[in-house]
TrEMBL record:
Identification of the protein by name: Haloacid dehalogenase-like hydrolase domain-containing protein 3
InterPro entries to which the protein is assigned, alphabetical: HAD-like_sf, HAD-SF_hydro_IA, HAD-SF_hydro_IA_REG-2-like, HAD-SF_hydro_IA_REG-2-like_cap, HAD_sf
Entry-linked SUPFAM superfamilies: HAD-like
Pfam families named in the record: Hydrolase
Length: 281
């Protein structure tokens, strides 16, 4: 995994800064998982169901889920960005990760059996089946684009998110988002600030002060975006324990994208009211 590259808080925007923020923005970038979409159930559920479909017992879903987390972290460390630098095919990267996930959970399969299990898992996660879209996602993204703002996706994900998963969920390039920077394609992943630099460039060379990033991770989303001079806010959709410490440190933390729109809209309305008052004088 990439390091945080010395990213630190630089005068994080308080909630009151929204009073002038919307009129300054040209670009809004958004994280995907936890921000726009969520998993249906746990990863271990899908892995064990695939094993059972091949006639193999897999009773401990939680253990497989934990095995996946360890295997994924190890693969991301050894071959970041889904094997981009090593020119490793995405399917091969996942095959190693999936086999290691089962092995860490104590399940070993012969090659033919594992191949059947893997094909099912790979196909499942290359579809919309394991994901759900948060109900506020489409409306928020389209509202941004109607306001004339560019919308970019910034995600630690491989090409199937861009080409298959997001379109299958109705999150389409051209209606909900304008461009995407995906780690498996770009070869750089969050929290490396270069992925945000790539987004600014993809939007036509937008200045950091004219961009807002929305995500759900202090380390991967907020800190690197703010380190570049972008505005940023975090969503806490699941009422996580760490969110309170984020708030205490001055980070804007909102429950969902409805609140994010209200936050931006309220500031825009205040700007207009103040401008009208000045004109009237």
């Amino acid at each position: 995994m990439y390091s945080n590259c010395g990213v630190h808080h630089q005068n994080p925007p308080s909630m009151s800064l929204s009073s002038s923020l919307l009129s300054k923005l040209r670009l809004v970038t958004v994280d995907v998982t936890g921000t726009l979409i969520a998993y249906r159930g746990q990863l271990g559920d899908y892995y064990c169901m695939a094993a059972k479909s091949a006639g193999m017992p897999c009773p401990d879903y939680a253990r497989v889920h934990q095995g996946f987390k360890l295997a994924y972290a190890d693969m991301s460390r050894r071959h970041p960005c889904f094997g981009h630098a090593a020119a490793m095919p995405t399917a091969e990267w996942w095959k190693v990760c999936v086999r290691d996930s089962f092995a860490r959970a104590g399940y070993e399969y012969d090659d033919d059996t594992f191949e059947r299990i893997f094909r099912r898992i790979y196909a499942t996660f290359g579809s919309s089946a394991p994901y759900s879209v948060f109900p506020d996602a489409h409306r928020f993204l389209r509202w941004l684009r109607r306001r004339g703002l560019a919308v970019g996706i910034v995600s630690n994900a491989e090409y199937r998110y861009r080409d298959v998963v997001l379109p299958a969920l109705g999150l389409n390039q051209g209606s909900e988002w304008d461009f995407g920077v995906f780690s498996g394609v770009a070869g750089v992943e969050k929290p490396d600030p270069r992925i945000y630099e790539a987004a600014l460039e993809a939007a036509g060379g937008v200045a950091p002060a004219e961009a807002l990033h929305i995500g759900d991770s202090l380390r991967k989303d907020y800190d690197p975006a703010r380190g570049l001079g972008m505005h940023a806010l975090l969503l806490d959709r699941f009422r996580t324990a760490e969110a309170e410490s984020w708030r205490r440190s001055g980070v804007p933390v909102l429950p969902d994208l409805v609140a994010a729109r209200e936050w931006l809209d309220a500031g825009d309305a205040k700007d207009k009211e103040e401008a009208e008052h000045v004109t009237a004088r």
